[in-house]
Design brief:
Radius of gyration: 36 Å
Strand content: 5-15%
Distance between the termini: 79 Å
Number of helices: 41
Strand order of the largest sheet: 6-8-9-10-7-11
Largest sheet: 6 strands, parallel
Structural class: alpha/beta
Length: 988
Amino acid sequence: MAEPTPHVTVVFAGQSEPWAHWMARQLTEVGTATALVRWNPARSSPTADALTGMLTAPGRVLLVIDDWFERFDDGLRTAWADALRQMLADHPERIAGVSVTTRPLPEAIIALGPVALRGLSADAARRRVLEVAGAPDGAVRPVTLDRVPRFPDDPPDIQNVPRRNRRFTGRGTLLDHIHDTFAAGRGEGAVLALCGPGGIGKTQIALEYVHRFKGEYDIVWWLDATTTGTAREQFGTLAEALGAGVGSKLDQSIAAAAGKLRATGDSWLIVLDGAGDPEKLAALLPEGAGDILVTTNHQEWSALAELFQVGHFEREESVAFAGRRSQRLSPYEAGLLAEAVEDLPLLLDQTAAWLDINPTVDIPEYIRELTESNPDRFGVLASQDYPVSFQIAWARTLGSLREQDPGAWKLLNLLARFSPGMLPLRLLQSARATDLPKPLDRVVPEPSSWNSALRRLSEVTSMRLEYDPVPRMGGSVTVAALRMHRIFHSFVRHAQTPGERAELTEAALKVLVTADPRDPASSRNWSRYAELIPHLEIAGALESADEDVRRLVLNCIEYLRMRGEYEEGGRLSRAAVEHWERVSGATSTSVLVAVHQRANMERRLGRYAEAEAVGREVLERLLSSPGAEPIEVIRARDGLGGTLLALGRYDEARTLFEQADREAVTSLGDAEVPRTLSIRNNLAEAMGLQGKYQASLDLHRDILTARVALLGGRNPLTLHSALRTATMLRLLGRYREALEIQQHNSRLHGQELDRNHGQTLNADHNLALCLRRDGKLLQARALLLSVRKRRVARRGRRHPDTLRAGADFAMLLREAGEFREAYDLADETASLYALQLGELHPYAVGTRANLALLQGDAGDHDGALELAEQTLEQMTDAVGADHPWTLGCAFNTATARQGAGDAEGAVRLGHDLLDRSVRSLGPGHPLTTTAQTALARDLRAAGDTALAGRLHAEALARITELLGDDHQHTRSIRDGAVRYWDFEPQFV
């Protein structure tokens, strides 16, 4: 057996680094020492002397050959080939070539006899590397827990990367710097931002980095971040690709994807291309050991990322790039062109491409025009937004395109009426021919004409084509997407005449309207609405008076509400109202619906004061308008009522819902249509928040029966009614009946809506409270902890849903004896409720009442009494003296008085409490029997044993009848144990 080669040096250009690392790993595994040497032929002189440094280390040299030779003109390519040939002749036994390119090799490089690795399996490529290096094969690979380099020809397991730009040239030093920076932080995570003005090549650098180094990643996900909504949608789709559970709300999908990335041991790379305000994209920067690459022109990213400033091409890069883009250009002419366009990659690409497809144009004359002429010579008004040379180049391009291919020119101008990031080719193809301007009514429907026009645009303007990865029937490959740079997009729009602009805007809006599925509630249509939304504003939909266009906008806003994108939905609805009111007046149907949606979004975001102001304005506007449609008044009352519920003004809300209910029955002619049932559901919720538990239960049961008959037992609205029914049963003290219903209801929610859906979390939350009241404290704690964690991940710590979970979980911690943790969480929750809703909101008061309990637990009886007396007074003012929440505060205050030594005051309050609780909740309710037992205890301590004995016996009999002899509540009353009441915020 031959002796193993003691040492192998792997020499590579920067773009081949993943191959070099993989080769080194294969050699190391069989006991061969290796060294990696990065070589940059673009920055070295093409002489044999420049290559001798490769031979300083002992042993064999493997020269990795990629397509670096294509980046040179014929002279440089020949010079390097001669240098390689001479070194090979001088050291034939020490140098071997390994080819990792799919391109044909020049003859001089073929003389090296390189072995080819591309297209082989990992095992076959390994054998070839070991053989050419003279290393032994057959050694047992060592077992290691370290991450091994990925075989570069294996694509990442999960990826959505755009097609590689084969014309990419230069930027080698920057790409190496990016790679080295990521590699230095490997395992800890790093965020890098490529920052620079438009047209500088940031996207192309990021794309080249991805393709050059994607072999080092298991997951590569590319986001078009030019609009926040598009970036969020695309990040949300990653959750499904990762196998994470997703719900109907987009932030659930985003949180699920981020969680998977945070927990995975796989290497990952997220690219945010064209990112704007970093604060709006913060949720798309997952924590973990992966890499994040951003392209942006916003310097603010320096707070979140290491900033790499991207400048214009170096002149030699410009010359090399232009020479590759157009074979007509000599190095000298390429230099002149680069100087004329200021070495800007975007414009250099477009001008060189234009020269290449116009072979009769005189190159020096064209370059002179760029520097000395005026845009108006080519029919374009001069603009202060771009350098003159840019305007002249683009004007010349548009002019020749219009002359040579009117169909392609018209298509370019129509595409400029849409958002540039991802032009809506599929939407255009699905449009009616009658909606398209001539000659596009003939070009678009005919596949060969369509593809020809797209290819022509790509050739003339250097717009990037993306092909559908799945061929159509018959094997034809179709164009799936076309990308237009924002600067060029802006110029094309600027160059359009008013008449052209009007014609093209009308056509663009017709295309969008035709593409509207008209059902934003159906998840089957969500991907389409996500595709439509980026185009609305730039296409002019918000300025349109056309009712079909407005209906499209409103459907998109409703989609955003369904997906939980309340910030974007609020912004879009505000913009729609602002534009439409000026044209159609304040009582136009479309304006009113948009205002209603705006109030809805504000309420969902917890901005209740803003939501109330908007809601009242709409209702007053409608009531003062003689021609207002009844359904609009109904919608306005219902929406304002929902806001008032959140603000704790339950009597006002109930009045509005009752009015809306009567009007709906009159207007719609049936009490059991979906709209009326929805209003009645809100009415039942208002009753529950008023403390009218039995009336609320009766109405919720009627709604549940109607919805089962109308919608079926698994419809989300039906599930919501069952959830509300179980909630009222629990609040009435019918714990086991509530638990049976809620256990089934929670299972159905998980099956129909996903475990992380907001309504599912409400169901699980109520199930935890049912378990708690039934004495199953460990199960309740585990489930509520899970709910709270999901709430925090989905909405953050300050959202009302999260606060509700925090209030209830704090009381579970108290029951477990974890008083310090319980106090901290209860204190945080009470403070945030007060901050968001006001100090006197019932939820702020109730959660402070919970704090009084914990103060008493800590032995601070005077402090507990002071806070209990304060919250009793405030709750009385907020909801009335006979509300169950006020009765609960009174019960705890009586207990606090007893703890502070005021026995007489405790008995006095206990008598009053018992009378009111019997009137409000009935003699058998758990709160009534608990209050009666506490009063009996206090009377006994005061010496009135006869009355105490009678009250205790009555309470025990009634609670036994309600809950049974073995329930924890029954046992505590039987044993005379001190119980308490704690406040539970209801969900609104």
